[in-house]
Each structure stands twice: as C-alpha cells, then as structure tokens.
C-alpha cells in the first residue's frame, strides 16, 4: 500500500510538471500580449492640421489601457503562483477560478468597446452627425486597431484559462445527483 | 443491493426535481429579460425639430437587438430541454456548457458596446467633435439606457448559468493529478 502510494506520487509528480509548465506559459502569453497592447495604445497620438488626438481623448481607449494593465499584472502574479510547486488547495482553486472569470469579462468588455469606437471612428454616423475621425487621423486609427486585435488575442487566452480553472475547481466535486436517472434505473434493474 | 439501488434512485429523483425546476427558472428569467430589452429597443425612436433617431441608426443598438433575440431563443430552447426529465448525457453537458459560455460572451459584449455608445451620446467628445446626442434626444437615450440595464441583468443570469453548466460538466471528471501532492505524500507516509 505504501509502495502503491509512492508510485502514485511519482506519477503525479511526473504528470503535474508538464501541466504546470503549460499553465504557466498560458498565463505568461497574455501578459506579453497585454503589455504590447498597452504600450501600443499609450504611445498612440497623432497631431496634424486637423488638431491632435491621443488615446486619452476617448474613454473606451482609456478603459482598454487600464484593463490591459490590470490583466498584465494579474497574469504575471498568477503565473508566479502556478509555477511554484506548492500543493493546490481548495481556496486557491476557488480564487483562480473567480479571478480568471472576472478578468475574462473585463478584457472582453474592453476589446468590445474599443472595436465599437473604432467602427464609429471609421464609418462615422450621419444620423447623429458623428464624423468619421479616421479620415483625418488614419495613423491613430491603425495603431488603435492593432491594439484592439492584440486585446482579442488576450481574450482568447483568458477564455482558455477560465476553462482550465473551472475544470480544476469543479473536477474536485462529485457529479450532481441529477446526472443519470435512466442509467441508474437500468443498473438497479440488472442487480435486482 | 437492488433495494439500495432503488433507494438511491428515489433520492436522486427527489433531489433532481427541485434542481431541474431551479435551472428551468434560471433559463426562463433571462428569456423574459431579453424580450423586454429587445421590445424596448425595437420601439425606441424619437422625432423632433432636430430630426429623427431610431435604434437602427446605431450599429451598437442593432447588435444589442440581435444579441437579445438570439439569447431569448436559446433561453427558451434550453429551458424546454432542461425541463424534460431525460437522462443527462455527456454530449448534452458539453453542448450546454459550450453554448452557455458563447451566449455569455455575446450578451456581455452587446451590453458593453451599448453602454459605451450611451456614454458617448450623453457626454459627447469635444476632441473628435462628436456631439452629445442625448441633449437633443433625451427620450431615446432614456429608453436605450433602460434596455442596456436589462441586458446587464441578462449578463448576470448567464454568468450564473455558465457556472452551473461548467459545474455540471466538469464535476463528472476526476480531479487532475496535480491536485494534492503534499497530502498524498502524507497519506503514503502514514500507510507505509
């Protein structure tokens, strides 16, 4: 029994190491992407004959910068915690699960509002007399679009991360009683 | 053994019925909310001295209407499927999990872009000469705000539903091998 236990341990050690490495990488990738999107947007300003435009003039882009900053910080912190070979407790699983979900929603909302503002800036809206800003500030719009696309890549990473953390949390629970009423009746019939 | 089997069945039948009812209600509530948000936005148009404005003039609100329509349809369909006392298969759990997640992201994006457009319409943006439309079209903005708030209630319901469906799916899996290396070593030590 003792031998079996240690064999299981070795197996678990062997299995956990690549899984932990994979999760650490999956958390470091969005960190790099967040920083790229953040720097690209922070440096995004254009001055020409029409005036000057910077990311801080639009609340959607300010929100994008903040969301990417928070996301980069959390990604780094969570990657460090995952990389450490500590036992995974229930409270840690709940915290990762909760924060991964929240970050996914925050970063998705940031990407969505940025795309909406870029769409309005590109096409304009004649019925409410909003002009197509991108006609005058093409360079600004290009960089902002690149930043929004990178943010969507972050969203994809975070969707994967929230799937992973919900799997790691909920696989510890037993299946709900509702699961297989039909199958159970069948088994009971066979045994009776 | 047969008696034990049927007792378990009875327990499961008793436990599954309130759970199924609760899930059905949790799926019917967002359906009602989606239809309210959809009808409110569809009927939202205002004509005055400045001109006329309808929801279809803004792509964010057109997206909100479509998202709410899709969400209402899916909520009704999924509520009907959940309400039927059929055995829950693995493919059904995967389908619910996948679609609940997708719908959560779609409806969250719709709510976020609507709030962004409403913010711009209320405050305007002097640096890009976008006027504050809500000054001229107050009634339109009020109804659109109400519709966006209702959509956020739908988002809250769908966050709960996607938690529930990920619990129902992942609790069928066993915990990953990484879980408790420390605890396992302790048990092995006690047994050896």
UniProtKB/TrEMBL annotation, chains A, B:
Source species: Hevea brasiliensis
Compartments where located: Cell membrane
Listed name of the protein: CASP-like protein
Membrane association type: Multi-pass membrane protein
A Pfam family reported for this protein in Swiss-Prot or TrEMBL: CASP_dom
InterPro entries from the UniProt entry: CASP/CASPL (IPR006459), CASP_dom (IPR006702)
Transmembrane regions listed in the UniProt entry: 25-43, 63-84, 96-121, 145-164
SUBUNIT field: Homodimer and heterodimers.
NCBIfam families according to UniProt: A_tha_TIGR01569
């Amino acid at each position: 029994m003792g031998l079996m236990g240690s064999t299981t341990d070795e197996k678990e050690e062997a299995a956990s190491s690549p899984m932990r490495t994979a999760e650490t990488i999956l958390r470091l990738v969005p960190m790099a992407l967040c920083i790229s999107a953040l720097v690209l947007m922070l440096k995004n300003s254009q001055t020409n004959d029409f005036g000057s435009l910077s990311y801080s003039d639009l609340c959607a882009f300010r929100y994008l910068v903040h969301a990417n900053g928070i996301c980069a910080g959390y990604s780094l912190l969570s990657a460090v915690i995952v990389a450490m070979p500590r036992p995974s407790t229930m409270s840690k699983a709940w915290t990762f699960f909760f924060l991964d979900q929240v970050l996914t929603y925050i970063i998705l909302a940031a990407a969505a509002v940025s795309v909406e503002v870029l769409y309005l800036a590109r096409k304009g809206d004649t019925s409410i007399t909003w002009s197509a800003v991108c006609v005058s500030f093409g360079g600004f719009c290009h960089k902002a679009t690149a930043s929004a696309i990178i943010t969507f890549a972050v969203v994809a990473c975070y969707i994967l991360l929230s799937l992973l953390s919900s799997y790691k949390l909920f696989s510890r629970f037993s299946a709900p009683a509702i699961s297989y009423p039909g199958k159970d009746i069948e088994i009971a019939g066979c045994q009776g």
